[in-house]
Amino acid sequence: MSAQMKRTWAEVSMERLAHNYHALRGLTPYGTKFLGLVKADAYGHGAVPVAKELEKLGADYLGVACLDEAIEVREAGVKTPILILGCTPVAYAADLVKYNISQACYDLEFAKALSDVAQKAGGEITVHIQCDTGMTRLGFLCHEETIEKSAKEIYEAVNLPGLKAEGIFTHFSDSDGSEEYTMLQFGRFLGIIDQVKALGYEFPIRHCANSAATLLYPATYLDMVRPGIVLFGHLPDASMDPGLCDLVPVLELKSRVATVREVPAGTPVSYGRTNTLTRDTRLAVIPVGYGDGYSRGFSNKITVLINGQKAPVTGRICMDMCMVDVTDIPGVKEGDVAVLYGEDQPVEAGAGIINTISYELLCVLTKRIPRIYL
């Protein structure tokens, strides 16, 4: 038994990651660039190993949320272009030059600050102009009443010294829900591109297709797509048609039975006594809890897979452990593997229980859980 597999661990299949990459590449026309998202520790899968695998597979760009994430990947030896999609404080912007990292540029004031930093550093900062077409987060505001003003500001920004304006992008807020709103955003995005082009600047890379748009709206591919959660085998919304693309989950979360106990009927289980046994029960103790990112909200509601059969979590999930009822599963013993998330134990089921999304459950898996790369 591997020392890393004594308690709880996550198995990350690089073969499955490659499968999903090629399946998504197969949706896009030849020449469409591919930005793979590795932000939030590659959605809990491990940013550096995933980034290295995407580089080997031929991804054109990698996307992160912040400077620290970008530097971690770059210092690991990854040469693929990296785009920071979030904010970088101006005080640290010189690192963009040092590490050759591209930065989202979301307003004229920030563009001027980056220009000043680049000139003082004696280098150049590659920027992708960020357009707010309806997400209402970051970006030059590109609504109908503001588009002309924003076009002029963007044109001024892309002509600042020290900046290389390589790309322009927007982010869809409801591409897994509303086609009407997505197309409204897409129309606004095309409109701002046209207005800046009319002023005299044309962007080499235009991108807006996130995971849902990559699956649903080929018209939005433009020059580059930005798949995120789908790279790891999960749909942005559990109600989407799984036939849209042949995706497989990349990560399986596993633990081992610590012990099996015979407990009489009438015994309360775990904190708060939220579950009192109604029969003589064989309880298996599993060393995983909310301290590992396995949500306390699953208490008394979720099952785990042991020996191919479902065992219900019984009582509240603790910080480091939980208890499951294995009365109806013969032969369960110490050391048996319990599958918490996997192909036959989908993370989406857990997300539905606590009214969240698979993104969150994967991202909250803590560093206490070693990732084993297969």
- Cα-atom radius of gyration: 24 Å
Distance between the termini: 15 Å
Q: What does the largest sheet look like?
A: 8 strands, parallel, barrel
User: What's the arrangement of strands in the largest beta sheet?
Assistant: 2-3-4-5-6-8-9-10
Structural class: alpha/beta
Stretches where pLDDT is under 50 for at least 5 consecutive residues are: none
Helix content: 25-40%
Number of strands: 20
Quick overview:
The two termini are 15 Å apart. The chain has 374 residues and is of the alpha/beta class. It has helices at 14-25, 39-43, 47-57, 67-75, 94-98, 108-121, 147-158, 179-199, 211-216, 347-353, 358-363; strands at residues 8-12, 33-37, 61-64, 82-84, 102-105, 125-132, 140-141, 163-170, 205-209, 224-225, 251-256, 259-263, 268-269, 275-276, 281-286, 303-306, 309-312, 322-325, 337-341, 371-373.
Lay out the secondary structure.
Elements: E1 8-12, H1 14-25, E2 33-37, H2 39-43, H3 47-57, E3 61-64, H4 67-75, E4 82-84, H5 94-98, E5 102-105, H6 108-121, E6 125-132, E7 140-141, H7 147-158, E8 163-170, H8 179-199, E9 205-209, H9 211-216, E10 224-225, E11 251-256, E12 259-263, E13 268-269, E14 275-276, E15 281-286, E16 303-306, E17 309-312, E18 322-325, E19 337-341, H10 347-353, H11 358-363, E20 371-373
Parallel strand pairs: 1-20, 2-3, 2-10, 3-4, 4-5, 5-6, 6-7, 6-8, 8-9, 9-10
Antiparallel strand pairs: 1-11, 11-19, 12-15, 13-14, 15-18, 16-17, 16-19
